[in-house]
Amino acid sequence: MKNKIFAFALCAVGASAITSCDDFLTTDSYSEATAEFVFSNMTTARAAMDGAYSEWHGAVSSHVFGDGLFYALDIAGSDIMRHPEGFNSQPARHIPECFYVNEEKLKEYDPVTYGKDGSSSAYGVLYSVIGKANAITSAIESMNGYNDMMAQTEPSNLSQLYGEAVAMRATAYRELIKYFGDVPFQTVMGEPAKGLACRDSIYDVLIADLERVEPLMNPVSAANKNYFSQTYVDGLIGRMALEAGGYQTRRGDINYVDGDGKALTFETLGTPNVGNSTYGRRSDWKELYAIAKEYFQKAIDHKGAATFVTVDPRAAENGRTYGNPYQYFFHQLHVDDAGYADESIYEEPFQQGASGNDPRPYSLGRPSGGGSSNAYPCKSYGQGRINPAFYYGKFDPKDLRRDVCCAVTGSDGKGYEQLIPFTMGSTVKGGGIACNKFDENRQKTVWTKNQRRSGVNAPYMRMSEMYLGLAEAAAALGDDATAKANLKIIRDRAFGGDGNVDAFIASEGSLLKAVIDERGFEFAGEGDRRWTLIRTGLLPEKVQEIKALTKEMIDGLEANGSYTFANGNVISSKIYIKKVDAKATYGHRLTAQCPAGSESDPVLYPSWRGQNDDWESYGANYGGNTATNVAIKGLFTAYTATDVAAWEADGYAAQAWGESLVSLKSEYYDCLFNGYDYVKAPIYLFPFTPNTMATGGFTNGYGFKQE
Question: What is the mean pLDDT of residues 521-543?
């Protein structure tokens, strides 16, 4: 693999047709300051890099890891996650989520239906990030001491900064490829990015660049997890190598070559889609997986201040118990606005109360029906939701991750917990089972003045991914011992020390599938699953599984009023709830881990819910009604008429539950991957917008419209 792409003539599509380029496709420079001046001391050099980080932060928060394309696709459209609103009410999101119903909707989908057409689009912002990174790398590469720096055997301040810029460029390109496929490529300041380069060339070049700077960077430190580090670069190489060697849908009008310009061949699955687009992986995928295996191991070896926590360090307080090390990671994200979680390798930082967009609690968090300001907590839309069949049928009831990932209750915004119905809708008013990892109720200090200002950081890379990535690469390459050992690390933590790995592998049918599904449980509710299924080639199989399980569940509910899953969970047509004063009874409103043996407690189980202990200090007025928490009966177990009579005598009232899934079968089953045939190459990408095509000199593929 080389540092430059030699095959643009083979990869380019219509590049010669355009001679000018919009400003968001050109690289930026830092005023008229020379490289020697800017990088003559680390104060000015770091200021230049911080400007690039600021550009990256905007891309993350509003486009690729918070809202924007992430909001539209990543957090839904898998066997684990879905959108909460009716299919016909949000076609701009639901149609791409279902792979555009194969070719049926491709030619109808307007390229600007969801994305903006210009410099403020995800595409434009990511190229602005690349421009900033290129300005820095080009400046350093032009310095007289560049070759000496690259010959060092130890990192220096300048080599660390240079590595950060290279990592930022690679990270931005990774996001572009994930959403758009083949894109323009350039790494030199001032050169316009025109014509399409095949993604395989881009992957190869960027991985080689990252390998070159990795030895010259420092492992992550506790105070700098908002900067790219050697640990991050190791993990990024692992990520990109798995993706480069994995399955993707490629358009039929590009000649695909590697980083040296050599023609590639592919192992394909299914049949071609519109425009002869095919779904496959490179025939040399094992070489890329070997790189992934090497660098995930290096990330673990170079972990620095990133610690995989296996014992929950929190002591019981206010009657609240803990004892869940997986839960502890998300607890840390909510506690300190200026700190970082132990397990994080890189967090996208958000300052509480700052202007801008803090999307995780709003878009992907536990829902709140509060207003946009002065609420307890403020509105949380909850765009990411959990497929009911996954929650009930796939998650083991003993898995400590389930209740951290999934929530059946949210907040009304006035300080009270509220059941989330399965009816279509957003916030706490509808949409069904929600994601639970981000909840402003959990913050040590809550921002109640405005929505989207919580200050909860977004975890972009953490240690558990390094172990699972290593396990995946090892399993695919036949190194079962390494794969199983690293799978065991993750699974044992999730099951209190004994994940029964052999039985899990047997139930999954293979070690590799066990690793992929373990990753699903580990990152459930974070928007990781869709891309993982695409790149591993497991997408058709897992979609069929969740469709079949959903149908069995709904059919059972319709016929019998309940359905029993293989793991013992029972979903019933109705559940029974009442409001209780948890603070008076337990000493706290916000629950943590349900103590072992207390699973029958209707307030403490499921875990990790409730309300902030002290909304009163923020101005909430309960008016004497301090019954803030929801007690739930019949959520997971079968019950009798005698049980119901006793519950109703105790003040519980029936609430529609599984019966709503029956009445909404068209939404929860029919529209689940509506029209996807499991055979044709899945079109999971977004189309280029007209301005992007005009300025870049290329066209849309995959059957998308050209204007």
Answer: 98
